Amino acid sequence: MSSMKDTLLRNPEQLGRAVRVKRLEKGLSQVALAAQLGVERKWVIHLEGGNPRAELGLVLKVLGALDLQASLNDRGHSPAQAGSNTLSRLDEVFQLLQRRPTK
Q1: Which CATH number does the domain 1-70 belong to among 1.10.260.40, 3.40.50.720, 3.40.50.800, 1.10.230.10?
Q2: How far apart are CA 32 and CA 40, in angstroms?
C-alpha cells in the first residue's frame, strides 16, 4: 500500500518530492523511469529537484507512469466540495470544449 495521500502541491519542489517518493515506492531508479519516458536521467533529476520549467506534457507522462493523477480545484472551494455532484465552472468549460466539433 502506498504512503502517498492526496496532496496539495504549491510549487515545483513539492511536485519533485512527490515524484521522487512515488518512484522509490515503486522501486524504480531514475534511469528506469527516464527510459520509460524516453528522456535522459538528467531530466528526471531536474524534475525531482523542482525544475519550474519542466515540460507539462512530460510531467503528465511521469504522473501516468507512476500511477499518480493530477486534479485542478477552484481555490474558493475545499477539496471535499470538489467531489460533490455540482460541476465546477472549469468542468463546464471542459465539457463545452469536448462537445465542439473540430474543423
Answers
A1: 1.10.260.40
A2: 10
